[in-house]
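[[Per-residue structure]]
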Amino acid sequence: MTDKKAMDKLKGKAKEAAGKVTGDRRKETEGKSDQAKAKAEGALGRVGERAKGVKDSLGDDK
C-alpha cells in the first residue's frame, strides 16, 4: 500500500472514530467511505501489478 493510500485509510479511521465519539453519523459514514475507497484503490493497484507480471511471464517470443 502506498503512503497516500495508507494516509487516506488512517484519515478515514480518524473520521469514523470522531463521528462515533461526537454522535455525528455523517462524519462516521464519511470515515468508513474513505477507508473503503483506500482499500479499493489498493486492490486495483494489486490487480494491475499482477496483470503486468502475467504479461512479463508470457514474454516476447520473437
Observations:
- The first helix runs from residue 3 to 22.
